[in-house]
Amino acid sequence: MPVLDALVSAGHEVTPILSESVRDADTRFGTAAGWREQFETICGRKALDSQVAVEPVGPKKLFDALVVAPCTGNTLAKLANGISDSTVTLACKAHLRNGRPLLLALSTNDALSGNAGNIGTLMARRNIYFVPLRQDDAAGKPSSAMSDFTKIPESLALALEGRQQQPLLAGPQR
Strand, coil or helix: what is 1? Predict the structure, then answer.
């Protein structure tokens, strides 16, 4: 998790927020317990892993900025439509009420199809920023796009200044 290591090494206080899937599911990418341990070890703090745990994010103004990485198509759609029925979407809603930056690092197979409108909707909203993205497999998955996660630190710095990192849409990887 080089990006997370970089944020912590740069002096950022990072609190992991686990989606229900990360909190509960063992997948081909790793176990729920393994992911929790990695996040909590790197960040040096306990993960927030339920709607009850993230509810104070807004009233207590817990974060200067909130980063959703990866931001799935499902989470993107919920944010665009004001749905806050998960740990991550409720944390985002609670955070945005304070007029502080929300940074989204997309990773979704339908960014350029079903979620294209949701990206546009969120781009037009105050305090929502995107990590630059590109098609991750233009020939095999023409609607899929993924943010360049290595750009999270610089995108975060700009979001804290109220600026969107440009260019937002990157060309093909070389």
Answer: coil
Alpha carbon 78 to its chain centroid, in Å, reads 13
- What are the residues whose beta carbons fall under 8 Å from the beta carbon of 50, sequence distance 6 or more? 23, 87
Task: Please state, in angstroms and rounded to a whole number, the distance separating the CA atoms of residues 94 and 62.
Answer: 10
Element (H, E) at 67: strand 66-71
CB under 8 A, 24+ apart: contacts of 139-144: 141/109, 142/112, 143/109, 143/110, 143/111, 143/112, 143/113, 143/114, 144/108, 144/109, 144/110, 144/111, 144/112
Say if residues 93 and 59 touch (Cβ distance below 8 Å).
Answer: no
CATH of the domain at 116: 3.40.50.1950
Whole-model pTM: value is 0.95
Residue 24 lies in a domain: yes
The residue written with tokens 């609607």 in the block is 143
Average pLDDT for runs of 10 along the chain of length 174: 92 96 95 97 97 97 97 97 97 97 96 95 98 91 94 97 95 70
Q: How far is CA 89 from CA 42, 100, 139, 146, 167, in A?
A: 23, 15, 32, 19, 26
Provide the number of structural domains found in the chain. 1
Answer yes or no: is 170 within a domain.
no
165 located within any domain? no
Q: What domain range is 44 assigned to?
A: 2-160
